[in-house]
UniProtKB/TrEMBL annotation:
Pfam families named among the record's database cross-references: F420_oxidored (PF03807)
GO cellular component, one term: plasma membrane
Region Disordered, annotated ranges: 1-20
GO-annotated molecular function: coenzyme F420 binding; cupric reductase (NADH) activity; ferric-chelate reductase (NADPH) activity; NADP binding; oxidoreductase activity, acting on NAD(P)H
Lineage summary: Bacteria, Bacillati, Actinomycetota, Actinomycetes, Kitasatosporales
Domain of life where this protein originates: Bacteria
Identification of the protein by name: NADPH-dependent F420 reductase
Keyword Oxidoreductase assigned: yes
InterPro entries xref list: NAD(P)-bd_dom_sf, NpdG, P5C_Rdtase_cat_N, STEAP_metalloreductase
Source organism per UniProt: Streptomyces tardus
Gene Ontology biological process: copper ion import; NADPH regeneration
Domain (Pyrroline-5-carboxylate reductase catalytic N-terminal) ranges: 28-119
Length: 236
């Protein structure tokens, strides 16, 4: 007789991995929201019905970008953006990554942070991956933000596609990495609100480097085939 039979209790059914939480009420902030990637993510999430605030070092610049995006998007300086948001996406250039996070560490305390920064270098041979001392941009974020819940996602999205008003769906998967499954599921749910996208759990933060570095390969693909390639996983 099994333990469950002897106690009269049944084993709980495994959770459906596609049963994701409702995130429609969450306010999403985008640090670096005036750059192409940040504006593109802000645009798609706002069109999906999410409340979005974009941040910049200059509040006026953020407000101007927000007005151009419409759909209720607001602009603010990075500190206010972080303070007013439930989930904060980090979409700043790699060379400003550490300084930006250090400047808003207090405002990000207790917040769910989604790092989508790709540490890359460029030379005559094209793009190549850089490896931060901490292992990845996401792990650097986790080290700099000990009081935040850091995840990694949205690395492989084309800013061109995100910003193109003629494209209604972006058929791609978004790998989400993190230490707490519930936090990853929130980010997966956010990604899945954008038509055509799926948020897929991709492991713990220690695996973020290869996800970030894959962008160097995608840049080579896009240059060779004049495309805006993303990632789609099979058999799930």
């Amino acid at each position: 007789m099994t333990t469950s039979e002897s106690t009269g209790s049944a084993k709980p059914a495994p959770k459906d991995p596609w049963d994701l939480p409702d995130v429609s009420s969450l306010v999403v902030g985008v640090l670096g929201g005036t750059g192409d990637q940040g504006r593109g993510l802000a645009r798609r999430l706002a069109e999906a019905g999410q409340k979005v605030i974009i941040g910049s070092r200059a509040a006026d610049r953020a407000r101007t970008a927000a007005e151009e995006l419409g759909n209720g998007v607001e602009g603010a300086d990075n500190a206010e953006c972080a303070r007013r948001s439930d989930v904060v996406i980090v979409a700043v250039p790699w060379d400003g990554h550490a300084a930006t996070l250090e400047a808003v560490r207090e405002e990000l305390s207790g917040k769910l942070v989604v790092d989508c920064v790709n540490p890359l270098g460029f030379d005559k041979k094209g793009a190549y991956a850089l490896k931060p001392e901490e292992g990845s941009a996401a792990e650097q974020a986790a080290a700099l933000l000990p009081d935040s819940r850091v995840t990694a996602a949205f690395h492989h999205l084309s800013a061109v596609l995100l910003l193109d008003p003629d494209i209604e769906k972006i058929e791609t998967d978004v790998l989400v990495l993190g230490e707490v499954r519930a936090d990853c599921e929130l980010v997966q749910a956010l990604a899945s609100r954008i038509p055509g996208m799926r948020g897929v759990f991709g492991g713990r933060l220690r695996n973020a480097h290869q996800v970030e570095s894959l962008v160097a390969n995608l840049i080579s693909v896009n240059r060779r085939y004049k495309a805006h390639a993303g990632v789609r996983l099979t058999d799930i």
